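Our platform keeps sequence and structure together, in a single record for each protein. Such a record has a labelled line for the sequence and another for the backbone structure tokens. The tokens are whole numbers drawn from a learned vocabulary of local backbone shapes. The remainder of this section carries one protein's record, kept here as part of the documentation:
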Amino acid sequence: MSFQPVVPFSGPAGWAFLQRTRESQQETFQQSAVLQRNTDAFRERIAGISSAEELVADRQLLQVALGAFGLDEDLDSRALIEKILTSDTTSKTSLASRFADSRYEAMSKAFGFGDPFGPKVAESGFADRIIAAYNERQFEIAVGEESTDMRLAMGFARDLAQITDKPQTDDSAWYSVMANKPLRTVFEKAMGLPSSIGTLDLDQQLKNFRDRAESVFGVSEVADFNEPEVQDKVRRLFLIRAQMESDSFGNSSAATALTLLSAGPRF
């Protein structure tokens, strides 16, 4: 039986526990037979893959490739993934570049099948980088089986960085946040926005996200959320609101903490 990560508490207390124990828990988790088989196969065979067509034809390697970017659910969408992988990411009009979800472009750039200089799969350290990302994401999935909220909090900084590392306008960055389901969930809950906001016109959604970010965090541009202290406040608000929803802590210390954290940027 494979190791299942332990998350004994919800809210900020659970997050603190997870941060203290993550290294040891993930190390144990990575020793599972399934992960070992997949990563060993990837390390042994990826350098010999010369095209996106070959990669998508090897289900085991594709599983690792997609899993490294949180795209596990696309395992059976081989035709689409092949087109994305062969996209020229130096062009703003290529398929991978046009996706609002930045994970597809990140994957395409990492493998480089559509780049002018050719694929990067045989480069030194390539397999190790993809395997490290795959192991990290799989650990987050396992944590998510115990707590979806913790999984979302774990991936927040990384998913945000994939958007802010890309040259684009702030409007485009916010649209990318709204298109990324995990990020959108964290922002919506942290800022107290209802999920029904998704039914509004996109321009109206953008205004709501930006206005609420300014009100709650004192910043309105996506790039501002790269600041560690701002990210920490986002996570805490997200986890406290999630805890209140699941445990009905309306008059508890969690509610008091939420009131203080929501008081504005001067807190």
Remarks:
- Residues 249-267 have pLDDT under 50 and may be disordered.
- The CA atoms of residues 5 and 21 lie 10 Å apart.
- The radius of gyration is 20 Å.
